[in-house]
Amino acid sequence: MVKGSGSVSFRVEEITVKNKRHHKRRELYSSQIGETTVKQIEDAFKEFTTREDIAIVLISQYVANMIRFLVDSYNKPIPAILEIPSKDHPYDPAHDSVLSRVKYLFSTESVASGRR
């Protein structure tokens, strides 16, 4: 079981946008971090990254670190995985998978073009 500090909760919602003024929200999953196992987080990540109706998955960096091997090995462009900071845990750019990929692409591009 994942142990959280205090009462950290999270919610997974599906938001369907019909137009700029109308959208529909539906809660898919809700839990307290202290009640959620790493296996449940892994299963939810796998489910949301294989659904065709999801374009972006927002995940807090704290939760992403619990399943870092899955987040780092995910390599499809859609859905995009974006790590966001949480209120209770500071952001660490060293663990941001998107930032790491961007740095890698720019370093590869620099080497390929002869620039450093």
TrEMBL record:
**GO terms for cellular component:** proton-transporting V-type ATPase, V1 domain
Highest taxon in the source lineage: Eukaryota
Q: Which UniProt keywords apply?
A: Hydrogen ion transport, Ion transport, Transport
| Pfam short name (any one) | ATP-synt_F
- Into which family does the record put it? Belongs to the V-ATPase F subunit family.
Q: Where are the transmembrane segments?
A: none
Q: Which GO terms describe its molecular function?
A: proton-transporting ATPase activity, rotational mechanism
Organism of derivation: Fraxinus pennsylvanica
Which named protein is this? V-type proton ATPase subunit F
Q: What is the lineage of its organism?
A: Eukaryota, Viridiplantae, Streptophyta, Embryophyta, Tracheophyta
